[in-house]
Structure formats: structure tokens, C-alpha cells
Amino acid sequence: MNPTPPRPAAPPRRVVVLGSTGSVGVQTLQVIEHLRDRGGETLEVVGLAAGRNADELQSQAQRFGRPVTALASPGPDAPSQAFDFTGPDAAQELIESVEADLVVSAIVGIAGLSATAAALRLGRDVALANKETLVAAGELVMPLLTAHGGSLRPVDSEHAAIAACLAGRPVEDVKRVVLTASGGPFREWPADQIRNATPEQALEHPNWDMGPKITIDSATMMNKALEVIEAHHLFGLPAERIAVVVHPQSVVHGFVELRDHGVLAQLGPPDMRGPIQAALTHPCTRPGSAAPLDWATLGRLDFEPPDEDRFPALALARRVITSSGGGGGATLNAANEAAVAAFLERRIPFGRIVELAAGALDALPPRPLTGLDDVYDADRAARAWVEQQI
Q1: Measured distance CA(76)–CA(81) in Å, rounded
Q2: What is the C-alpha to C-alpha distance for residues 48 and 21, in angstroms, rounded to an integer?
Q3: Per-residue model confidence as pLDDT tens digits over 321-379
Q4: How confident is the model at residue 8 (pLDDT cuts 50, 70, 90)?
Q5: Cβ neighbour number for residue 208 with a 10 Å cutoff
């Protein structure tokens, strides 16, 4: 009997990381190195895109065998010839020029939309950490999956948890999904103190290590509002079937409540490397790069309803989902981005962030989205409106 010949090794999967110098991008590269060092999933980094951190991008390119690089905003000390693509369209040009199997979309804000849409038009699998893509343009982005055959793998811990619990289960079996929220640094603060919080206080997140914009969004709970809109598009659920519960320990990342009253939950440490690795290795499971839960010291798990009087952002998410026209998400997202930037520049108090986002929705009625130009028009109008109010 002849011995069975060894199975040939699978070719490495080619990965592009958009937003490689940001918090999620850096952790993505750490996970790729972790998998490589343990002889597991073979991932080849073929492209890296960043905003303005030229030095870090060059360092990453050296670590990963000099893949194709893109820098959106090279400064005066960053020679453009050091990168393959530069300028505001650099990430999209990289996507359109490099053959890849998986694109990690981790550019923060609306800046990641065009490159992510380009990846989906090319039929790429996309690990989506950029929630603004679906918030601003979900009506345009989701049909690209059907038209071109790619896939979206959520990287936000909450949506990754919901996807893991669903595991192919038909949406008709689901009563509702529940996203968990840490409550941020101001969970127990009185309303008047929250209103006048400083940037330093708002950036002190109790559980998660994230970039400044997402951390401020967590403090206002706008991050959770955007995630509700994202869940609406990802899972095809109406607003009344998407709930939020505050869970200060950030151990349970999401629940799926079934029609028979059973509940599925996904637990893990508050470490983004867990959902990042799940997206990179799907559908396989490899030894984790995040620390495991210590059940002996875990202690209690607390849950409470969100206080929408102190944190009114969640109501804006329901308003966007149920409004007519598709531009409401783009308006909300842009107004919030502009207001967060103004807060970090100390031009407005913390309490004005959500007020300005709500005001933009009042002042700028949503219009149907026929293409990405409509999204960018809504984005510009919302930013201009916020600046006028400041």
C-alpha cells in the first residue's frame, strides 16, 4: 500500500491593511505576526495604507517585506517617492492596483469609504473595522456584495460577536440582537458634569485601547449609535430588533435573542486582537493572540439599560434607520466627526457634540443616495453646517 502523499501547503492569503498606522491597523499587524510566528495561518501583507504617519508606515513596510504603500497626506518631511501612492485617493489606488484576497478596512471615518467600496467592487473579502462605511453608505455598499461576490467580516467586537452567534442561522429565527456598551468613562457621572468634561477625561476609556476619535465616540455613546446603524445594514434588521445594554466589564460582546426565548452570547476579553484574528482566519480558529478569560478571577458580570437622558445619541440611530431617504447616516456621521474634532481642539464643550449631530439631522433632511457622490455631498453639507454653528 502506497503511503498517502503529503497535502500541499495552501498558498498564503494576500492581505491589504487600510489604516495600518492607526489603533486597529497596528493590532492587525500584530495578529498577523502572531499567526506567522506560531506556524498557523499564512498571511502575506501585500499592501499598507495610512493617513499621515509616514515614519510608521515606512517602518511597517520594512517589517513586512516592503509591500505596496499608500500615504494620503505626506508632510513636507515625507518624500512622496518613498511611497507607491500618495494623495487623498491613495488608498483606493492601492486597492485597484494590488491583487489581494482580504482587505482590512481600518481607516477611521468617511475617509475609508471609497477604498472599501473599491475592494467590494473587485469582489474582495473585507474585514470591516470602519463602521462609517455602512453608517454613511450602507444602502450603496451592501448591494456590492450581491453584485460582485465578496464578503464583509465585521471587526467591531459587537458585530463580530453577533455574527459568531448567528453562525448562518436564518434571520427569521432571531427575535432581536443586543449590542453591549461599556458605558465609557462617564457612565456614573451626572449630566452637568458630563457636559463640561475635558478631552483628557473623555479619552480615559476604562476598558478599551482605541484611537482618539473612537474613544470620544464611546464617551458620548455615539459609537454605539453608529454600531446600531451598522448592525441594521449588516444583519438586515429593523431598529426595533436591535437593542443596546450597558455592560461595564466589556466581557460579553453581544447577544442574540431567539424567537423561542433562548439567548446566545459571545464572551471574550476586551481586546481588539480577538475579533481581528477571527476576521483574518475565518472560517478557521487558531491559537489566540489575546489573553484568555480567567474564569477564577472574572467575578461578576453587570448589565443595565442605557440612560438616554444623559446619553441621547442612541435615539439618533433609530431616527436615521427609520427616516425616509438614505442620506441621514452620512449627515449624522459627518456632523459627529466635525463636532468631535472641534471638541478635541477645545472649541466646543463635550456636551455640544451630540447636540450638533442632532441639529444637523434637523437642519439637513436626508435625500436618497444614488451614488457615492451623494454621500460626499451630504458629508460636506453636514460639516459646513457644524462649522457655522460653532
Answers
A1: 12
A2: 9
A3: 998 667 899 999 999 999 999 999 999 999 999 999 999 999 998 888 999 999 999 99
A4: very low
A5: 17
Q: Look-up: residue for cell 468631535?
A: 340
Write phi, then psi, for 284 (nearest 5 degrees): -90, 165
Residue type, 156: D
d(CA 257, CA 48): 39
Q: Measure CA of the first residue to CA of the last residue in the chain; give whole Å.
A: 81
Helices (H) then strands (E): counts for the chain: 16, 11
Q: Are 243 and 233 in contact (CB under 8 A)?
A: no
Q: What's the pTM? A: 0.90
In this predicted model, what pLDDT tens digit does every residue of 260-290 receive, in sequence order?
999 999 999 889 999 999 999 988 888 888 8
3-state secondary structure 171-232: HHHEEEEEEEECCCCCCCCCHHHHHCCCHHHHCCCCCCCCCHHHHHHHHHCHHHHHHHHHHH
